[in-house]
Please model this.
Amino acid sequence: MNTQLQDLVNQAREQFAASPSAAELENAKARFLGKSGAITALMKDLAKLSAEDKRAQGAEINLAKQAIEQALQARRDALAEAELQARLAEQAIDVTLDGRGQRRGGVHPVMRSWMRIESIFRSIGFEVAEGPEIEDDWSNFTALNSPQDHPARSMQDTFYVDLDDARGQPLLLRTHTSPMQVRHARAHVQRHQGSAAMPDIRVIAPGRTYRVDSDATHSPMFHQFEGLWIGENVSMADLKGVYTAFLHAFFERDDIELRFRPSYFPFTEPSAEIDMMFDSGPLRGRWLEISGAGQVHPVVVRNFGLDPERHIGFAFGSGIERLTMLRYGIGDLRQFYGSDLRFLEQFDAA
Model:
């Protein structure tokens, strides 16, 4: 390789080495290997030479071109490696840090109350039923004696789903667990159809429910449990006895008084609000609304597939969050769903 070509190779190596980025390296490449580059110009000049000189000079130019291409590739590799190392350094993991490990889990306070409620009612002979959270209009409203113009059907209170059931009615997120009264009772009647004597229906149905409501004591999603006892000789006195026994077991104390206030629910008649009062502690002397209840309405009993002249009973519905707040002295329902581990972990030892 003659001196001129060697100088050209050295210049290329210097300029490639001085290129700090891939873009500038490509600009440097164009000065030597591009269409208007130095090597391309030398190749064009070969046309002026004789065949013998062309062959000799062409071989040397090719050697110079190969040396420049090798220097170019070496610099490309160096820039790529530098970029990779910078990225790795930026994303590096310090393996000397203490391991995070796995934290011990716990039961959510609402689920803790749910499990406690199920255990108490199972111990006194009640079944536990579960059902769909997306309900049909008939089960959620009509079967429970709520006509089409009932205010609970309004968009302000109910989350409707953009689908229709077999009756052409809209589907919705259930506003209470009461539809399970209908579903369980109808299944119970069908199961014992033709029997000489049908066993009493005794069931609770805990689950999630949905309403358009949100403040310190309400949530758009909340938990409720429904209770139902239907038989041939079940009275409101049984309701008071069952619910009183439940509260004593749930709160693990006997200093609880109950009162029944007249109220209105379309699915019970007569209807009552159940209030409770502690005889000691921070809430002593305050009446606290705890449940809605009443004797199951004859229309609802008939929708169960039973004769309301023969079968009678009671139903009640209680909020699980409400009971949990009273049990643990919590003032704001929204804390249950704030994902604050400091709040949730304190119930692990409860």
Summary: Residues 3-90 form one domain. The chain has eleven helices and ten strands. The chain has a mean pLDDT of 87.
